[in-house]
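#struct-pred
JK: can someone run the complex with fe (iii) ion? inputs below
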Amino acid sequence: MRLLPGFLSSERQHALVVELRAIVASAPLYSPAMPRTGSPYSVRMTNCGSHGWLSDRAGYRYSPTHPLTGAPWPAIPRPVLDLWHETTGLAYEPQACLVNWYGPEARLGLHRDQDEEAREAPILSISLGDTALFRLGGPERRSPTRSFRLASGDLMLLDGPSRHWFHGVDRILPGTSRLLPEGGRINLTLRRVTLPQLPMPGGR
Ligand code: MD6
Ligand code: FE
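RT: done, structure tokens with the ligand placed:
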């Protein structure tokens, strides 16, 4: 795992919020449902990119369209793509950008991100707004865990073994950031879903 605390200047954070408000205007936030039980998440979600991550009674999957509007997801904004290349050093692009929007009471249970065919591609997490108490475990649900804070402007890269570790958000610390006038926290996770094409040896 690579933590990049304070990576984003206040200007870059504000610019991302402007992009995200435009995304939410065309792809509205919704409350996903847990597989099988259908109980709602406390986090509201939307996506941008060609592949949007969905959770509902039927399970977890990637979809090219919004579950309520039926429209294709908006594109991943340029500044977000730039952050992916800047931090991962990878030439290929991410295809999914899940937008998690937390109110003061929202949390996210311990889980692994396992719905991607590109199992070894890193995941980049971008945090904006109120600080989260983030929990990172290990390869098994029972592995020991530790918790730490993710503040506005912090980036975290889950790469190598940590790509497959359990993690979640224990809680939000309300009033810890003034980036979002309405309060709360936004987290973006950027992922590659399908296997990137390998460059042709000697090819163009
Ligand atoms: C969050 N993050 O920070 C939730 N997943 O709100 C995640 O679930 C996550 O931060 C995969 C990789 C990095 C993450
Ligand atoms: Fe996750």
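RT: quick notes.
The mean pLDDT is 97.
The chain has one domain: 2-195.
JK: thanks, will look after standup
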